[in-house]
């Protein structure tokens, strides 16, 4: 049994295999009903479009049965402990996919679960997103080796997972993030051998990059900090045509969506051919299958 709670749970070979398997699923090279007669619970404490729907469809297409549960529908919402919920659900289902605010609660659930637990986003990480993103880049460029990525904006959960993934695969990563907003897992990524450079000025950070990655300035759960965050990030850390023109001519833009058009990214970039956001969203379906297979069928 394998959980997928963090990108750091994976070896470089396993991460590469997950990326390649995502591409195999997308190209229709895998047809078997690998999850036949398996029930998988999805517990979402926060809203989701891509993650929840792609996992539900992936489970169905692999022959399994998804059971979607809102936090407040469960006794969890009335105070039943995470540990007891994990012990009970382990008796019914073959895996649990969870989107929670606190990463510590995900770890607590996994500790008491006897079935695989998959991180569908916490305040600390979004590993499934980053697997789909790497598959998107590998499909676009035909390789991952040698790519230089620049993250522009907030050092959030996606940024944390990206730092770890780049460290595992030896990709160059530049962070253009204001002082005080660096990703909490930056040091861990460096300890893992990650080549992460911090260049706070976006126009300098994107020089020679193949990929600009950005995300919202205010993540779910940070709504009370919205005004102050906007003062810090906007407009300096916005990905717009002017910033894109400073990169290589064949560079691309990633965004995990949902986006706030006009804040972290402008419409002319978001809806241009240079932006792969809808390919990333599409690849969430295929990466969901590769993650399910990895965690359940080893
Ligand atoms: N990128 C992502 O996780 O999207 P959702 O919040 O819609 O699942």
Q: What is the third-level CATH name, the topology of the largest domain?
A: Rossmann fold
Question: Would you list the SSEs in sequence order as H and E?
Answer: HEHEHEHEHEHEHEHEHHEHH
In spatial order, strands of the major sheet run 7-6-5-8-9
Which homologous superfamily in CATH is the superfamily of the largest domain?
A: Aspartate/ornithine carbamoyltransferase
- From the alpha carbons, calculate the radius of gyration and give it in angstroms: 19 Å
CATH structural class of the largest domain: Alpha Beta
Termini Cα gap: 7 Å
Bound molecules: phosphoric acid mono(formamide)ester
Roughly how much helix do the residues carry, as a percent range? 25-40%
* Mean pLDDT reading: 97
In the predicted model, the low-confidence regions spanning at least 5 consecutive residues are none
Largest sheet entry? 5 strands, parallel
Could you describe the 3D structure shown?
By secondary structure, the chain is of the alpha/beta class. The protein has 2 domains: 7-125 and 284-297, Aspartate/ornithine carbamoyltransferase (Rossmann fold), CATH 3.40.50; 129-280, 3-Layer(aba) Sandwich (Rossmann fold), CATH 3.40.50.1370. It is built from 12 helices and 9 strands. Strands 7-6-5-8-9 form a 5-stranded parallel β-sheet. Strands 2-1-3-4 form a 4-stranded parallel β-sheet, sandwiched between helices. Strand 1 (39-44), helix 2 and strand 2 (65-70) form a beta-alpha-beta unit. The longest helix is centred in the C-terminal third of the chain and has 20 residues, at 277-296. The model has no long low-confidence stretch (mean pLDDT 97). The structure holds phosphoric acid mono(formamide)ester. Residues 48-51, 121, 129, 256-258 line the site of phosphoric acid mono(formamide)ester.
């Amino acid at each position: 049994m394998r959980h997928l709670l963090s990108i750091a749970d994976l070896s470089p070979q396993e991460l590469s295999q997950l990326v390649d398997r995502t591409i195999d699923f997308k190209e229709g090279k895998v047809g078997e009903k690998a999850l036949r007669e398996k029930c998988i619970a999805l517990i979402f404490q926060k809203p989701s479009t891509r993650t929840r729907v792609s996992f539900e469809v992936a489970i169905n297409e692999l022959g399994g049965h998804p059971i979607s549960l809102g936090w407040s529908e469960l006794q969890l919402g009335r105070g039943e402990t995470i540990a007891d919920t994990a012990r009970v659900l382990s008796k019914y289902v073959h895996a649990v996919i969870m989107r929670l605010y606190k990463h510590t609660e995900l770890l607590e659930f996994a500790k008491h679960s006897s079935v695989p637990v998959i991180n569908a986003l916490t305040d600390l990480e979004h590993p499934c997103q980053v697997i789909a993103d790497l598959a998107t880049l590998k499909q676009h460029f035909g390789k991952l080796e040698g790519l230089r990525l620049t993250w522009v904006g907030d050092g959030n959960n996606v940024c944390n997972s990206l730092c770890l993934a780049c460290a595992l695969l030896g990709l160059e990563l530049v962070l253009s993030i204001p002082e005080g907003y660096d990703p909490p897992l930056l040091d861990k990524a460096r300890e893992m051998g990650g080549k992460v450079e911090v260049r706070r000025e976006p126009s300098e950070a994107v020089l020679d990059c193949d990929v600009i990655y950005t995300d919202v300035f205010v993540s779910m759960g940070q709504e009370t900090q919205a005004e102050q965050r906007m003062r810090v990030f906007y407009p300096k850390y916005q990905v717009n045509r002017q910033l894109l023109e400073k990169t290589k001519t064949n560079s691309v833009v990633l965004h995990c969506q949902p986006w706030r058009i006009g804040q972290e990214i402008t419409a002319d970039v978001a809806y241009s051919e240079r932006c792969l956001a809808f390919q990333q969203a599409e690849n969430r379906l295929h990466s969901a299958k590769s993650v399910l297979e990895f965690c359940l069928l080893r």
